[in-house]
Structure formats: structure tokens, C-alpha cells
Amino acid sequence: MTLPVVAIVGRANVGKSTLFNRLIGERVAIVEDRPGVTRDRIYGKCEWNGRTFHLIDTGGIEMDDRDEIVNLIRVQAELAIDEADVIVFLTNGHEGLTATDRHVAEILRKSRKPIVLGVNKLDHPTHHALAYEFYELGFGDPVAISAEHGAGTGDLLDKVTEQLAPETVDEPDDDAIRIALIGRPNVGKSSLVNALVGESRVMVSDVAGTTRDAVDTPLESDGQSYVLIDTAGLRRRGKVYEEIEKYSVLRALRAIERADVTFVVIDGERGIAEQDKRVAGYALDAGRAIAFLVNKWDAVQKTDKTAHEFEQALRAEFPFMRWAPILFVSALTKQRIHKILPLAREVADMHAMRISTSTLNAVIQDAILSVPPPSDKGRKLRIYYATQVSVKPPTFAVFVNQPELMHFSYERYLENQLRGAFGFEGTPIRLLTRQRS
């Protein structure tokens, strides 16, 4: 299921970051009582009335176009508006309706997106009359709120969820394996899609950021249906986004949500970068099956040890994903392209594997006999039994006497034993420690 997107937009210093933190329940956005603190868009998830959606915090939009930083913040906000399904237009009730508010309102009107108008910093019901002035903007009934204290935020969320489109599930084919190709800009994701499909289905360019949005390409191979999801390249946060590019991290994150398998595409010519870890982390956090595609391998000066050395370097940089397979390919020369779809099918099978409770507990008991559970200050961890509670990714509940005695190192040991017994190549495993009632 692809989650809808809600963006909080407004001029500087109206409390957008405070509202963002209040709605997602965490202190993520930087909150400081001066304009221009929030420069990048910040993403989080919010749930209300049974609906879950992405929430975007944006920098304040200002009218002064002579300041370069102000312009960049405005571009970020406009990109967020472009991505959003619903926009929360936040204003400051104590300062009243300003010329900049009217300027922001004109930008929002052009977007033709549903707008929910919030009037912030109205901490007491006696101040709610200050919201009436904002009817002038023409966005319907303004909602008086206090982001700092939480007052009125429930009413605001009610109006937001009313504007969200009905939930839909993106499943063009129930049996299809959905594959997202993710990575930094210009690593060859679109070229790989074209090589797999055998025709130029996705726009390819040497200019970083050519792919504007996620593009679904269905195909079939050896009786198996696939859907390839090409995504806009993920960039380091803080990198300047050009206005003409319309590129977004969030679009790639939404593509990951819709995927069964994610291929992290790495530029073999340029090598491994810090951003590659961030990209892989998005897929890992989402619990997707993962494999590495080292592209442009034809352009690498090689000896008989080059692939082994690159693989060793990759494993060293991604020690938390040693289970993810690595394939060296070239979209240009089609080198090993024919192995990509079979690999996707293999890791998708592992991602959806279900183990019977009896077989699972036989492995767990053998693991306990080989390496007994740890003890702490005379208290000994006792593991009674385990059961698989879900797939995609395989998730196991391990029932114990005292969950706090389960050390992460022993949890990792159990994970390694499960991988040794069942494979689980290309998929994360989740272990949930539960107290037996």
C-alpha cells in the first residue's frame, strides 16, 4: 500500500516544525524561535482515525527573492507541495493575516491540492476569534490550534483525513514480484530497467536526476510476472535540489513501500559512497528483500581479484547486511543482466518463506544446547519456544521468562542459526522477544 503524503506549509516562524513534532509524536524537526531554521524537508509518519500517512515538514516561504537561502527553502517547499496529496497551510493567529500569508496562499491555490487551514499559537479558547480573519484566504473554515500544547490538533487531523483519498493497494498482479531499483543519482537504474525489458522504456540521461518519479514497468520471464519500479535517485540530505529537477527522496521511499524486492544499485566505477548506506538503510527499515547490483562493471579496470576485493569492501561497509547477495552487472554491455530476475525471484521466495513451528523450535533448541542463553546477576534467561508470526520479512516471536535478559548479541546468534538452517538469503529477519504469560 502506498501511503498518502501531507505537507505542512507556511511562512517562516508560524510553528510548522512544532506541529510536525506534535503530530508524529517525536522530536525530529529542529525547533527554534527564529525564521529559517528548517531548510530541508523532513519526513515522518502519522496515524489518525485508522489512516497512516507521510508527513512533510518544510521551511518557511518568504517573499524576498534576493536571498539565495530563502530561494532554496522556497524550492524545497514547492517540491513538497508538488508531492503532497493534502496540504496543511499553517498561519500565526497572534500575528494576524500578513502579506506573506497571502503570497503563500496564491502558491497553494495554483497547486489545486486540498488545503486544510490551521491558525496556530491560539493557546486559549478566548483567542479563537483571532482565526476569523483568515476566512479571507478562501480555504474554508480555519482550525484554531496550539501546536505547542496540542490544543485543536485533533480537529486539524480530522479535516486532513477527510481530504485523503480512499485507501488503495497497488497490486497490478497478485503473483507479480515488485522490484524497486534504488540508489544515488546516475548509477544506471533506468539503464538497468531498459536492459531488462529489452527496449528503451524509461528516459535515460547522463544528467543526474533525470528520473522524476517512480515508473512501473511490467514484464514476464520464465512464467513469472514482475513489476520493475524505477525511482528518482536518492541524494544526500542537504544537497541543493534544482527547481527544474523535481526530484524527491520521498518518491523513492514510496516506491520501496510498494516493492517486494529492492536492488541497491551501486556505481562500480565510482565505488561505494556514504549515501549508499543511507539508501540501503531505507530498504532495510522497510523490511524489504535486498540485493546489491554493482553496475557499470564493464568500465572497471579489473584483475582476477577485483570482484573479490570489491565484494570484501562492500561487506565491510555493510556489516549489518551480510546476507544480501551481490551481483556484478553492466547495463551497457548486458553483462549478467539475465541473472537479475532469477535473483529477484530467489530472494522474494526467501522473503515470503514460512517455517513450521515444530521445525523452528528444533533449530532453536539445538542453538540453546550449543550456546546456552546468558545470565545477569544470577538471573538466567530461559527460552521456552518460538513461532513465526509473519512473512515479508520473516518475523519470529521468541517467548522467554524475562525479555530484558535477551542481549542483542544472543539475538544475533539466534538469527545466524536460523539463517544457517533455512537460508533466508536476501531478506532481513526480525526477532521479537516476548514474555510467556
UniProtKB/TrEMBL annotation:
<dbReference type="Pfam" id="PF14714">
    <property type="entry name" value="KH_dom-like"/>
</dbReference>
<feature type="binding site">
    <location>
        <begin position="120"/>
        <end position="123"/>
    </location>
    <ligand>
        <name>GTP 1</name>
    </ligand>
</feature>
<keyword id="KW-0547">Nucleotide-binding</keyword>
<dbReference type="InterPro" id="IPR027417">
    <property type="entry name" value="P-loop_NTPase"/>
</dbReference>
<feature type="binding site">
    <location>
        <begin position="230"/>
        <end position="234"/>
    </location>
    <ligand>
        <name>GTP 2</name>
    </ligand>
</feature>
<feature type="domain" description="EngA-type G">
    <location>
        <begin position="177"/>
        <end position="352"/>
    </location>
</feature>
<feature type="domain" description="EngA-type G">
    <location>
        <begin position="4"/>
        <end position="168"/>
    </location>
</feature>
<feature type="binding site">
    <location>
        <begin position="57"/>
        <end position="61"/>
    </location>
    <ligand>
        <name>GTP 1</name>
    </ligand>
</feature>
<feature type="binding site">
    <location>
        <begin position="183"/>
        <end position="190"/>
    </location>
    <ligand>
        <name>GTP 2</name>
    </ligand>
</feature>
<dbReference type="InterPro" id="IPR016484">
    <property type="entry name" value="GTPase_Der"/>
</dbReference>
<comment type="function">
    <text>GTPase that plays an essential role in the late steps of ribosome biogenesis.</text>
</comment>
<keyword id="KW-0690">Ribosome biogenesis</keyword>
<keyword id="KW-0677">Repeat</keyword>
<dbReference type="InterPro" id="IPR015946">
    <property type="entry name" value="KH_dom-like_a/b"/>
</dbReference>
<dbReference type="InterPro" id="IPR006073">
    <property type="entry name" value="GTP-bd"/>
</dbReference>
<feature type="binding site">
    <location>
        <begin position="10"/>
        <end position="17"/>
    </location>
    <ligand>
        <name>GTP 1</name>
    </ligand>
</feature>
<keyword id="KW-0342">GTP-binding</keyword>
<dbReference type="InterPro" id="IPR032859">
    <property type="entry name" value="KH_dom-like"/>
</dbReference>
<comment type="subunit">
    <text>Associates with the 50S ribosomal subunit.</text>
</comment>
<dbReference type="InterPro" id="IPR005225">
    <property type="entry name" value="Small_GTP-bd"/>
</dbReference>
<dbReference type="InterPro" id="IPR031166">
    <property type="entry name" value="G_ENGA"/>
</dbReference>
<dbReference type="Pfam" id="PF01926">
    <property type="entry name" value="MMR_HSR1"/>
</dbReference>
<protein>
    <recommendedName>
        <fullName>GTPase Der</fullName>
    </recommendedName>
</protein>
<comment type="similarity">
    <text>Belongs to the TRAFAC class TrmE-Era-EngA-EngB-Septin-like GTPase superfamily. EngA (Der) GTPase family.</text>
</comment>
<feature type="binding site">
    <location>
        <begin position="295"/>
        <end position="298"/>
    </location>
    <ligand>
        <name>GTP 2</name>
    </ligand>
</feature>
